[in-house]
Design brief:
four-stranded antiparallel β-sheet, 3 domains, alpha+beta, 11 helices, six-stranded mixed β-sheet, Dihydrolipoamide Transferase, about 425 residues, OB fold (Dihydrolipoamide Acetyltransferase, E2P), Chloramphenicol Acetyltransferase
Length: about 425
């Protein structure tokens, strides 16, 4: 038998390290070649690494939330044959350091010689409840589909025992939980609640936190909110959806807003831009690459619709649906999740009255449509009920002047209020 050391390959240009998101296997498992091994996160893209060989997993590089260097050992296998002798030396030096503390601590806690054997037996015999098997503060591992199903059923995944690889909760686990008649413990509305849950910020949530912190730290934001009469555009949208072909996607408001942006942005090149503040250079882009902020089970992800200026509303709607699905599946590539020049962030029906969206660094602008509501307005001297929407936006004041931002939004507003102009050359 030999040892095979699997080193983390290059996951993209400029990537020096990646975060371990979840292991699909555990030490001691026999793993088939090309079987799912570990999910790695880099630059907001989650990459599933598969096993390069068939063998028994005897060491792993770290736990979820820890960083692994590109080119460094990520896993060690016991394999038939000689393995790869070149990599065997590195983990061998690390192995003595990690395992000893655990065997040494158990006897110290037990004191006399007889208890040590009894303690391990008790620990192995008693993992009946799922909460014991799951590390304290650790987030239950499950696929997006399982999480959505649990949410629809009102089940907290923390109460569900996991039987999948690396402690992942499966659909079968949910079925067993439901069949057992178990639900999340009920509590009186007047009972005191004293529990404190510790949730380690790792994976996608850590990447989002880092990006938001960087945006607010480096960019002097200023917000601008304007109300838009969406009545005519909504009538057009409803008509187009009612008369569309079967192979055409359903239209939301976003493709029309995208169309307005690509029509207006050429007159404001400083807004369709990315600011390298360290080099002191603003990169103004001719192509409009629109980031679409998308809520996923792992947090907010911004996939990118590339060259939106070349898409009509139908193609834009199809592309928005495609990139949103990529983001929700967690399988988006670096290309899918980078390169945006301006971002749209919409809370849909939860859009509220107004928002102050955070700019997606290193962009210089973000547009946030709020929900459309029926409101009484004065129109031609008469009170009429119109479909109104507030359009919220934020700009980088280092690059975009307040006057230019206001003028830009006013032109976008005019396009939306007179939707025929969206399609006129």
């Amino acid at each position: 038998m030999g040892r095979f050391v699997f080193k983390l390959p290059d996951l993209g240009e400029g990537t020096a390290e990646a975060e371990i998101v979840a292991w699909h296997v555990k030490v001691g498992d026999t793993v088939a070649e090309d079987a799912p091994l570990v999910d790695m996160l880099t630059d907001k893209a989650t990459v599933e690494m598969t096993s390069p060989v068939a063998g028994k997993l005897i060491e792993i590089a770290g736990a979820p939330g820890e960083m692994a260097a590109v080119g460094g050992p990520i896993a060690v296998f016991e394999v038939e044959g000689a393995g790869n002798a070149a990599g065997a030396a590195a983990p061998a030096a690390a192995k003595p350091a990690a395992p000893p503390p655990e065997p040494v601590e158990a006897p110290v806690a037990a004191a006399p010689p007889p208890p040590p054997p009894a303690a391990p037996v008790r620990a192995e015999a008693g993992p009946a409840p799922a909460a014991v098997a799951r590390a304290e503060g650790a987030k239950p591992l499950a696929s997006p589909a399982v999480r959505r199903r649990a949410e629809d059923l009102g089940i907290k995944l923390g109460h569900v025992a996991a039987s999948g690889p690396a402690g992942r909760i499966t659909h079968d686990d949910l079925d067993r939980f439901i069949a057992g008649g178990r639900t999340a413990p009920a509590s009186s509305t007047l009972a005191r609640r004293t529990a404190v849950e510790e949730v380690k910020v790792i994976g996608m949530r850590r990447a989002i936190a880092r990006q938001m912190q960087e945006s607010k730290r480096r960019i002097p934001h200023f917000a601008y909110v304007e109300e838009v009469d969406m009545t005519e555009l909504e009538e057009l949208r409803v008509h187009l959806n009612a008369t569309k072909r079967a192979d055409q996607p359903k239209l939301t408001m976003l493709p029309f807003l995208m169309r307005a942006l690509v029509r207006v942005l050429p007159a404001y090149p400083q807004i369709n831009a990315r600011f390298d503040d360290e080099a002191g250079v603003v990169h103004r882009h001719a192509g409009v690459h629109i980031g679409v902020a998308t809520q996923t089970s792992q947090g907010l992800v911004v996939p990118v619709v590339k060259h939106a200026e070349s898409l009509d509303v139908w193609a834009a709607a199809s592309e928005v649906a495609r990139v949103a699905e990529i983001a929700r599946s967690g399988k988006g590539s670096k290309e899918d999740l980078s390169g945006s020049t301006i971002t749209i962030t919409s809370l849909g029906p939860l859009g509220g009255i107004a928002t102050t969206p955070v700019i997606n660094h290193p962009e210089v602008a973000i547009i946030g449509p709020n929900k459309i509501v029926d409101r009484p307005v004065v129109r031609h001297g008469q009170i009429a009920v119109r479909k109104m929407m507030n359009l919220s936006s934020s700009f980088d004041h280092r690059v975009v002047d307040g006057y230019d931002a206001a003028e830009f939004i006013q032109r976008v507003k005019a396009m939306l209020e007179h939707p025929a102009t969206l399609f006129m050359d």
